Amino acid sequence: MCLEAESTPKCRPDGAVPHATRSAGPSRSSRRRRRNQGLEIATSRLPARRALRQRGRGPVPWRPRGPASPPGWELAWNRYELAGRPLGHPPKERQAETTARGTRDSCRVVGLVTDTRAPMRIGLISDSHISRGGELWPQVFDAFQGVDAILHAGDLWSPVLLDELAAIAPVWAARGNGDMHVNDARVEDTWVLDFQGVSVAMIHDFPSPERASPEILARRTEQRFPGATPDVVLYGHTHIEEAAGVEGVLYVNPGSPTLPYNKSLRLGSIGFLHIETDRVLAELHQLAETGTEPMHRAEVPRRSLELAAGAA
User: Fold this and answer.
1) Helical H runs in 225-280?
2) How far, in Å, are 5, 46, 59, 88, 192 from residue 77 at the CA level?
3) At which of 50, 80, 102 does a domain end?
4) For residue 311, what is the enclosing H or E element?
5) Do residues 285 and 168 both lie within one domain?
6) How far is the C-alpha of 139 from the C-alpha of 157, rounded, in Å?
7) Residue 125 forms beta bridges with which residues?
8) Would residue 225 count as lying in a domain?
9) Residue 234: which region, alpha, beta or left (left: phi > 0; alpha: psi -120 to 50)?
10) Residue at a domain's end among 75, 102, 129
């Protein structure tokens, strides 16, 4: 006869006492809680989190300020390391979220890069995606010989390319979603540069003038470059070369010299920006076996001349 007791396991219907079974271990939800607890401990060690706790506001959700902020991406990589995942690039959605948040936080404005009144020729390039040990097409370096400056609209991957381009002319680069590890003074989330009174704004990701309305372009310009009135907006990211003038603003995407859109078998593209006395002209060139070939061009009148004419 089986006697029920709190200290003994329950009897089976046949009266036999079952053997003690080994515990199956913590459930999946408990393991997840333990892992999140470790991540919460890691994030709580940030100075900003400690300061908020001292003020009595309690814990706040982890939110990176931008790709250039030290806590943001160091913490993102630490989170994946703690979770037992291979250390590498965070997922694309986290990159896009952080890039979108960081564009306004680290906009760098450089006033009057040059005050010469002679026509200027600026080399434009984007999305080179050159990994360590890789090389850019020699046609690009040959085409950029003699330019006054070089603007790279992001996704360098390897900062060595900046030094190679700087041997030709001064270089400025926007931070792409693949450049979070690049720590170089020549790389910022956004730039506003002044060339002979022509304001050139540069960012990696920006709406295409072929798909976005003028209102959307104007609103996004104000969001990404607050307080600026650019004459030229240079961007990349899509690997689609395009140049168009919309309401007096020239929008230019030089495409990619190494990875054309849709994995095309043709060679990639670069661009040039010509600042002349009465207009600003953008030219897109496709790389060829020997040199480059012109593809498309767009121009807008210089806004400074229009303002002067209106004042008169």
Assistant:
1) none
2) 53, 14, 21, 7, 30
3) 102
4) helix 303-311
5) yes
6) 20
7) 152
8) yes
9) beta
10) 102
Place of tokens 């960012």: 203
Largest alpha-carbon pair distance within the chain? 112
Whether residue 22 lies inside any domain: the answer is no
**pLDDT value of position 36:** 57
pLDDT of the residue at 59: 42
3-state SS, 60-92, equals: CCCCCCCCCCHHHHHHHHHHHHHCCCCCCCCCH
C-beta separation of 136 from 257 below 8 A = yes
Residues 170 and 286 in one domain: yes
In terms of residue numbers, what domain contains 119?
Answer: 107-311
- Report whether pLDDT(30) > 90: no
Contact call for residues 64 and 72 (beta carbons, < 8 A): yes
Q: Is residue 15 part of a domain?
A: no
- Both tokens of 278, joined, read 């009465």
Structure confidence at residue 54 as a pLDDT band (50, 70, 90): very low
pLDDT value, residue 303:
79
